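Case study B.
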Amino acid sequence: MSESSRHPMTGNEMSYYAEGGIERHQYDVVVVGAGGAGLRAAIAAHEAGASTAIVCKSLLGKAHTVMAEGGIAAAMGNRWPEDNWEVHFRDTMRGGKMLNHWRMAQLHAQEAPERVMELEDWGALFDRTEDGLISQRDFGGHKYARLAHVGDRTGLEMIRTLQQRAVQIGIDVFMECTVTELLQSPGADGADVIAGVFGYWRETGRFVTIESPAVILATGGIGKSFKVTSNSWEYTGDGHALALRAGASLINMEFVQFHPTGMVWPPSVKGLLVTESVRGDGGVLKNSEGERFMFDYIPEFFKAETADTVEEADAWYEDKKNNRRPPELLPRDEVARAINSEIKAGRGSPHGGIYLDIASRRDADFIRKRLPSMYHQFKELADVDITQEPMEIGPTCHYVMGGIEVDPDTELSSVTGLYAVGECSGGMHGSNRLGGNSLSDLLVFGRRAGESAAAYVAGLAQRPAVSEESVRAGGWSALAPFQAEGGDNPYTIQQELQQAMNDLVGIIRTASELEDALVRIEELKERAKGMTVEGHRQYNPGWHLALDLRNMLLVSESIAKAALARQESRGGHTRDDFPKTSPEWGTRNLVVRLDEHGTGVTLQEQPLPEMPAELKKYFEGA
Amino acid sequence: MGYDLKMRVWRGDESGGELADYTVEVSEGEVVLDALHRLQATQTGDLAIRWNCKAGKCGSCSAEINGRPRLLCMTRLSDFEPTETITVTPMRTFPVIRDLVTDVSFNYRKARQLPGVQLGPRDADGKRRMAQIDVERGQEFRKCIECFLCQDVCHVVRDHEDNKEAFAGPRFFLRYAELDMHPLDTHDRRELAQGAAGLGLCNITKCCTEVCPEGIHITDNAIIPMKERVVDKKYDPLVWLGNKIGIRNKDANGRTEV
Amino acid sequence: MATTDHGVTSPGRARIDARTLREDRWWLQPLATFVVFSAFVVYATSRAFMGRDYYASPYLSPFYSPCLGDCVEGASDFGQPFGWWPLSAALIILIFPLGFRMTCYYYRKSYYRAFWLSPPACAVAEPHASYSGETRFPLILQNVHRWFWYAAVLVGLVLTYDVLLAFRPMPAEYAVGDGETSGIHMGLGTLLMIANVVLIWLYTLSCHSCRHIVGGRLRHFSKHPVRYRLWTWVSRLNGSHGRWAWYSLFSVAIVDLYVFLLATGTIQDVRFF
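Model:
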């Protein structure tokens, strides 16, 4: 076969060059997304014997996991032998303000260490302790130094390792291919089951159908709906929206994590992440008056384990046994809110942030060694030498705790054959995620999803069929933006959505603003129906954005609706009009489903699954 | 502090194209990618650009700016005079797809041809032990963000299309070196590096190192040490003699050739 | 400009006719390298074939050290095993430093760029239609660099010995001032030779092959602490290998020129004591 009839990225045969037809493939398991979760799931499915394909919007190895800096949380006990899964479980639940699905938090804490060591088997080179074991570093909300890391580029190490593993064992990858529809067909009990995916090659704009009884969504988050975000263009909530449209439910969508430290200047990089490791390694937060203000913001919930004097906080870095943690290392929601308050009170820096200072506290060599990419990032992008001067930082939209509701053990959603892992799944992190728990989440549940999807397919007597209508419908829907004329440019709608979400559904929320946001989202949805794109289908970013925008709008609506309903403040959801955490809301999840018209979402309350008594004991007296 | 920037951007595809002139408003602190994005949002909605993180971490937005291979997101406008016209073209070593986007599948093909890491069993307690100084060399190479600018600038393939078959390129020599220096790996890939990967085609003119946005010393720390390792195996009469009379080179202990 | 089917104008690549779009003065560095290297080659060749004016007691030109042929009196500190050699004595030993430098990783980069234009500068298309790198004879011989390095260490030792000899009392005809010639001596020549030998050693020890041999070849630094230490030192020197390559090239030429000027009586040694 000549090279030209194969897709240059994947080596797949490109039958779509044939007249009229749509390219078709068959696999047992299709993984959508090639970040840490997707790759880990694909590896697991492949190793379980399933023929597996990965479909991803970008090139392989470019997914958002690459941006993760700090580390992978896993109670390996390499630094602190007293660390174990129980402590990690407790930290995770407390960090999530007890709204996590207990079973997910438990599995996560139990399995993370082995998942990390697996990466090492596959070639990852973590930083080492003096004994030659994997080094572990401190992070906010974790009782012990627990994050396996490689300088401040742990995500890169993780994705490269998984990518190389996937290539080594020969998994097919459909790069620069966007999934726009989940294909379904009626199952044995009448309910629709997954039959495959429909999408387009970004490169050519041609359509592709992959028939597959199991689809694992690993599409990441929704951050691109906000103006100031640490997320890349890919984070448009594709998985969330695909799942909704397929009939699955989303949970905890009101909880969006604003990372306390994002860059604020220059404008072009506003929102770009500044790793929490800066604080873990000794950096402190100061306002324009030079005051270490975090001492004024220690909540009751964490008083017992947080230092209340500068002396004790500073002593902690050297002697962790006899001192309590500095308040700079409180969970992210606390720190982000504190920074927000300081800026609002007029004690911010010239560019509207506050100061993160490590220069005056650690020597230049230490900083360059421990935080090489931060040093590089500030030097190259802001002309700031972080070994000499403080950084200006402010909160940035970083992570969505909410996502597709799944079974904790199998990651199966409410739709047969549809699995979800990583940021696009929900429940694991409750109302707030601890730093470092994301990378371990990807690995633990990625593997579980891959294995359960492979098992499901192996047990199938008959495969669900993909109907011709559904494929044609997918094509029509995707081409709609080319049909309209005289409508808005997708970039304009995206910018207005980002502005609205940032201003009205941001870090501090009120009922009136949320209602306003919902009105605006409705307007934008209307305008989006008629938006027009110029040019043709070949690598056309305007068209790609137009398709992604539908997902962004649906997800934004879910967030705003859930945020309006939850009348309390908890974790990543802060209501100015309901500033207290409410015990009643502490037992309820909010669940989002597609409405009957298929254009919006509806909301339902659902009781939080109850933790068994043997796990409850870890929280007594705390 | 904004000003009007004059840009020339290559527009076209496989069948041909040309440098098109644009004027776009830019402001302080911006990078070339910002200017292109503004162009995209206001004048040329279908301008194809490949990008992701916009922070120099993913290595997607590789292109050539005023003839030099660079990341669009890490090239600050303040590096140029406001009156200067900035020329942006796709990478010129790979087939173009459209506008600034090229088909970099060459690199993914080469990645598939490289036998991956193969470690021995773990220690008795289920963990592995490696000293920090033993992993540091590999860690430098693993900083690679796979932007493929080194592959783009390397004249072996840039100027000689016919060498693409036989030459893996600097990015993969980095990988060979990383694996060869891995303290626990069990494979010997020196023959492969010299044979299948075409290490001998490299004439160490160091352009890969010059363009690396991560500042990896590709030539000095990976390629030359790899060449020396090949010399150990193939061109060192002392080693050859040692093998003949039964004194084996300890370096290769515990490693099998692949 | 005509389109060819190789290089940056190959089919499938973005159609841009210019061989480079670089606007900076990329040609300056290869040009400077070309001029300076060529000047050195002309000078060194003429001096090597000259076969005279290489010794001005107590100074021996580094081009002729060790002087193993039919050398002038006082110049041969290691005997004259090649006394039968009809040509200049420099030609017997120059092959070693020449080979060392010709196969040096730094010089290779420089002359491939400046002389062979392969490539002239980064992202500037080279003029050759085909390219086989260092895979075939003769360039595959670049792999013997480490053997020249062993020789270079010996040459370095000899040159160091020459420096010691340069402290010897001077013969009467070079005596300065009150004509005192006894006791140890130091002149500008001694100083130049010291500087030269220091630079030669820096160049020799910062060599990439040296870096590999002392420790780079190991996979477990942690099991060889001494070699690791050595490797770190050599690595630090290696960072400036190119600088030492240039400086030592100049210093060799300067010492030789100084000896030449002394031997021909053009100048007098500046004597310190």
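The mean pLDDT of chain B is 94. The remaining cases will be described in the next quarterly update.
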